Amino acid sequence: MKVIExxxxxxxxxxxxxxxxxxxxxxxxxxxxVDGTNSICHFHCVNVDGNGQVRIDGxxxxxxxxxxxxxxxxKEIDRVFKDFEKTGSAMELAKxxxxxxxxxxxxxxxxxxxxxxxxxxxxxxxxxxxxxxxxSLKTNSQLHxxxxxxxxxxxxxxxxxxxxxxxxxxxxxxxxxxxYECMKSIAPLLKGNGTGYDRRDLHLLSDFMNVNDPDLMxxxxxxxxxxxxxxxxxxxRGICLIAFxxxxxxxxxxxxxxxxxxxxxxxxxxxxxxxxxxxxTAEDLAKIKIHVFLLPFPSVEDFRKKxxxxxxx
Length: 313
Prior knowledge:
By secondary structure, the chain is an alpha/beta fold. The chain has one domain (3-312). It is built from 13 helices and six strands. The protein has helices spanning 3-11, 18-22, 56-64, 67-71, 74-87, 91-102, 112-125, 175-190, 199-208, 214-223, 258-266, 269-282, 300-312; strands at residues 25-33, 40-46, 150-155, 162-172, 234-245, 290-297. Strands 1-2-6-5-4-3 form a six-stranded mixed beta sheet, with helices on both faces. A hairpin with a 6-residue loop joins strand 3 and strand 4 (162-172). The longest helix has 16 residues, at 175-190. The model is unreliable at 139-144 (pLDDT under 50).
């Protein structure tokens, strides 16, 4: 299968729900170049409703509705839809929802809410389909799965290379700490070249690829095998979701205006962008293309807590 054919197949895999996501996350600035590197930053904030309320609860509700897409392999989803078409019963759909929820941990320090956000940015905004449903590989819901927080795939429009996107998400109170930890975590994956920290995930990709097209799967396996010449045609890239606390949302209980929130976020863009530059260069990642999504919250700890409570039911 040629790369152009792979590109066509991948374009049909990414879920097209950008409009739904933008109801909850407002775009402040996208494609903001990190000068001196190949990375670009995208800045968002949580949206505000008509009554001036920051839509944290709405965002969490939306995330809970995306659990199946994120956590369940496409093959299993397809099987359940075929059963529904055949029997007219939604029983298997209900089971799938329960299974997806059961894969999430109730640990208070879990980063799974950030990983789900990372997935939505990658699939909904960048149109890069998920390549492995790592949540489905967990043997214990109370364990956090090690390795990349997300793995997505795309094709470069210019070079026509197949691009493997390693994903990492971090939720910290401080933006500088979140940026530092995210770049520190993703660096070994981006610099692995099939011989380092990335090799374990490459093996998982080959064995548990989230693809329901046998021909596409066969073609992709050759690109993901360090012992295959096609591996030399694979480019590593990155996607980062960096969330942190910020006072751009004003005081609790006071009606907010999205234009004012946007203005406050915009005033910090240069500072956050400089922090990203500093960490990218410190980790020797300047030549690698990375999409960096920065998302301030009123409180990431409250967001994490509410998300865990929602998933636990």
